[in-house]
Write a structure and sequence with these properties.
The chain has 398 residues and is α/β, with parallel strands linked by helices. It has one domain: Histone deacetylase domain (Arginase, Chain A, 3-Layer(aba) Sandwich), CATH 3.40.800.20. Helices cover 37% and strands 10% of the residues. The chain has 14 helices and 8 strands. Strands 2-1-3-8-7-4-5-6 form an 8-stranded parallel beta sheet, sandwiched between helices. Strand 7, helix 12 and strand 8 form a beta-alpha-beta unit. The radius of gyration is 20 Å and the shape is globular. Bound molecules: ligand ZL4, calcium ion (CA) and zinc ion.
Length: 398
């Protein structure tokens, strides 16, 4: 059933808005929106644009954001600027919504994660607009796969920014898909738990959320962000067992990741039978990420994309985390190639595209190498996580 590369062509559409890529989270902040421009430059140079329809750039509207976010938060995002923050009464409102200015709020941790940045409102409207446009291209049947690498901001809450995420474009896109499809599956391979999406749909049986993430509650000082996503969290009420969490230890490599991903996704697809799939492709699960602690190669990460693609269900591909920018750009370019079925045809030599100097340390190759780690091949923990997850899935009505 679900073997890779069936040779069948897919109609793919792609969203890219340079207006998103120019946003600056501030000096030393890990989130660098330019990574999306780097991925796009590669996609273009590899000739992949010819195989996709390019979605028109149309920022979301305020009304569209209100389909998920509450009134006070939407107004705050609209009104806040670095200047307004210093002068007016906006400061208290901003802090209540999890955003701040680091220089002013030295003690407020969320000011570092979710800074008041220049062009914040425009940025939110643009990346959310991309995910909505992509969702509509699937809903109207004009595309089989839709891509927005600037989306995937899975931590944003109804009334609060969290974890570098201001607007939750994923919730908005899923809500759009629910207007046209009976059941929507959300899969999250970012190294962080997809808490904002899970929280919103945890009582909903038409949406199943599945997150694979680093979860280490008993680490030295504080748990890995956001600290949620244990396997016991399975949803509530009508949505019970329509939430699945796959917590993993640091150091996950391609082989062990796929040992979990494939059997678990087989079971999810068979039990839930989604009409559309949303895949958050956070690239901080790659080896060498500045925040993540997994060891996936680009091909290992993209294996999740090709696996889900092989089920021939409308597929929405979104970005997310990813903090070693050359790795991120390699990954999302390669996954774009997977979407159009050309991954075997793109050269490992990084073409001249304006960002080639970022690839010096990896010998100007698209694929960086993951050093082998010698250790115990047989891993009981993997079996335990797999069993726990499959046990939750066994509770789902077929
Ligand atoms: C930084 O160096 O764990 C932000 C954030 C800014 C610049 C200079 C300020 C120095 C690491 C992170 C102080 C930074 C203190 N600068 C940040 C509990 C925390 C409170 C804030 O991939 N401090 C919070 C969020 C996570 C926390 C991860 C993942 C998003 C996604 C989807 C979001 N927050 C501890 C950290 C730095 C910074 C250095 C940082 N923040 C690392 N991890 C976090 O899932 C897009
Ligand atoms: Ca995840
Ligand atoms: Zn992440």
């Amino acid at each position: 059933s679900a073997s890779c590369g069936d040779g069948r062509k897919r109609r793919v559409c792609y969203y890219y808005d340079p207006g998103v890529a120019n946003v600056d989270y501030g000096a030393n902040h890990n989130m660098v929106p330019r990574r999306v421009a780097m991925a796009h430059a590669l996609v273009e140079k590899y000739g992949l644009l010819a195989d996709m329809e390019r979605l028109r750039v149309r920022p979301a509207t305020e009304a569209e954001l209100r389909a998920f976010h509450d009134d006070a938060y939407v107004r705050l995002l609209r009104d806040i600027t670095p200047d307004a923050y210093h002068d007016g009464d906006l400061r208290d409102r901003a802090r209540a919504c999890g955003v701040g200015v680091p220089e002013t709020d030295e003690t407020d941790a969320s000011a570092y994660d979710n800074p008041v940045i220049d062009g914040l409102w425009d940025y939110c409207l643009r990346y959310a607009g991309g995910s909505l446009a992509a969702a509509r291209a699937l809903a109207d049947g004009s595309s089989d796969i839709a891509i927005n690498w600037s989306g995937g901001m899975h931590h944003a809450c109804r009334g609060k920014a969290s974890g570098f995420c201001y607007v939750n474009d994923i919730v908005l896109a899923i809500q759009e898909l629910l207007e046209h499809f009976e059941r929507v599956l959300y899969v999250d391979i970012d190294v962080h738990h997809g808490d904002g999406v899970e929280e919103h749909f945890k009582r909903e049986s038409r949406v199943m959320t599945v997150s694979f993430h680093l979860y280490d509650i008993d680490r030295d000082v504080k748990p890995f962000f956001p600290g949620t996503g244990k396997v016991e969290d399975v949803g509530e009420g009508d949505g019970k067992y329509y939430t699945l969490n796959v917590p993993m230890k640091a150091g996950m490599d391609d082989e062990r990741y796929q040992q979990l991903f494939r059997p678990i996704m087989d079971e999810v697809m068979e039990k839930f039978v989604p009409d559309a799939v949303v895949l958050q492709c956070g690239a901080d699960s790659l080896y060498g990420d500045r925040l993540g602690e997994f060891r996936l190669s680009v091909k290992g990460h993209a294996g999740c994309v090709s696996y889900l693609r092989s089920f021939n269900v409308p597929l929405l591909l979104l970005g997310g985390g990813g903090y070693t920018v050359n790795h991120v750009a390699s990954c999302w370019c390669y996954e774009t190639a997977v979407a159009v079925g050309k991954e075997k045809e793109i050269s490992d030599e990084i073409p001249f595209h304006g960002y080639e100097h970022y690839y010096r340390d990896q010998g100007y190759k698209l694929h960086f190498t993951v050093p082998k780690k010698n250790g115990n091949k047989k891993d009981d923990l993997i079996d335990k996580i797999k069993q726990d997850a499959l046990m939750n899935l066994a509770m789902l009505k077929p």
